[in-house]
Write a structure and sequence with these properties.
The protein is an alpha/beta fold and 332 residues long. The chain has 12 helices and 12 strands. 42% of the residues lie in helices and 17% in strands. Strand 5, helix 5 and strand 6 form a beta-alpha-beta unit. Bound molecules: nicotinamide-adenine-dinucleotide. Keywords: Lyase, NAD.
């Protein structure tokens, strides 16, 4: 049986991936996660058992990582510090986890010649002008803006160098913004949904013109699985679902789907260095590996996500006050 090590499998996208793998393969899954504030074991509790094992630990722990990688056929590396706002307040954990953690993992993978897939973000490419007709491709030069995106860019470059210098059996994917179940409520979409569920008005940064390219986390998971199965070693694949929306449109979509007037939100101060627009051209992944997103409509994906947060109040309600307090202190 194929054995897969999933780092960060108790986080948002990692936990969605674990559920996807359990449903669509017969792989044995080991999750390695340090359960930072962003990790939640409850997100994978329902699948833990014979096929899915949980190991509490840090990806910077070379001894533990070496042992787990030695026993795995494939490593899929999601673990990261992932929140831009936190990276502006305290960049250090981003350097430790995103750079040193990735270094620790690829050293173990090269030692054991283990297949490695590195999960990254489109934010490594910087941003585009709102009226630009271009989208990011695998050939777009790196131009990260924040401590978060620069440490992710650094980790991508380490993986690329390990492929070239040491023959690491690796692939890389850079994905656009994800939404779906199990996302920490500090993030834009679940924050607005849980605001409305808590009787708080949604908050929009700046004027809301910034554009993000949205993809459902389950479509991201399917793309990663496809890359593991059919991807060419050494290659980078961009993952996106042609889901460009302004933040203003996203807030209005959520409000309308939840039966509220579409203007029932507040404008708050913008984030420093806030990237204007991200847009992904995923034609390489679609043409070469035959992947396409299953969610064709953002409205349907958002409706399903709202329903998940409505039904799973226990999963998020305990964190709501602390998250809003954090934003209140920043005037957001
Ligand atoms: N969220 C997005 O829209 C998005 C888009 C593209 C790419 N990505 C990438 O996908 C990956 C997962 O993102 P996410 O949104 O699920 O993040 P997340 O913050 O929800 O989850 C990160 C997980 O990693 C764990 N972790 C953090 N530091 C660790 C360490 N040192 N050792 C072990 N575990 C540690 C956390 O406990 C948590 O479970 C990241 O690499 C991120 O850069 C995210």
């Amino acid at each position: 049986m194929t054995s897969i090590l999933v780092t960060g499998g108790a986080g948002f996208i990692g936990s969605n991936f674990v559920h996807h793998v359990v449903t669509h393969t017969d792989f044995h899954v080991t999750v390695l996660d340090a359960l930072t504030y962003a990790g939640n074991k409850a997100s994978i509790e329902s699948v833990l058992g014979e096929r899915v094992e949980f190991v509490y630990g840090n990806i910077c722990d070379a001894e533990l990582v070496n042992e787990l990688v030695a026993n795995a056929d494939i490593v899929v590396h999601f673990a990261a510090e992932s929140h831009n706002d936190n990276s502006l307040n305290d960049p250090r954990p981003f350097v430790d986890t995103n750079i040193m953690g990735t270094f620790t993992l690829i050293e173990a993978a090269r030692r054991h010649n283990t297949r490695f897939h590195h999960i990254s973000t489109d934010e490594v490419y910087g941003d585009l002008e709102l009226d630009d007709t271009e989208r990011f491709t695998e050939r777009t030069p790196y131009n990260p803006s924040s401590p978060y995106s620069s440490t992710k860019a650094g980790s991508d470059l380490l993986v690329r160098a390990w492929i070239r210098s040491f023959g690491l059996q690796a692939t890389i994917s850079n994905c656009s913004n994800n939404y779906g179940p199990f996302q920490h409520i500090e993030k834009f979409i679940p924050r607005q949904i849980t605001n409305i569920l808590s009787g708080i008005r949604p908050k929009l940064y700046g004027s809301g013109q910034n554009v993000r390219d949205w993809i459902h986390a389950d479509d991201h998971s399917a793309a990663v699985l496809r890359i593991i199965e059919r991807g060419v070693i050494g290659e980078t694949y961009l993952i996106g679902a042609d889901g460009e929306k302004s933040n203003l449109d996203v807030v209005k979509t959520i409000l309308v789907a939840m039966g509220e007037p579409e203007d029932a939100f507040d404008l708050v101060s913008d984030r420093p260095g806030h990237d204007l627009r991200y847009a992904i051209d995923s034609s390489k992944l679609r043409a070469e590996l035959g992947w396409k997103p299953a969610y064709n409509s953002f409205d349907d994906g958002i409706a399903a996500t709202i329903e998940w947060y409505r039904v799973n109040r226990d999963w998020w309600e305990g964190h709501k006050n602390a998250v809003e307090e954090f934003y209140r202190k920043q005037g957001q």
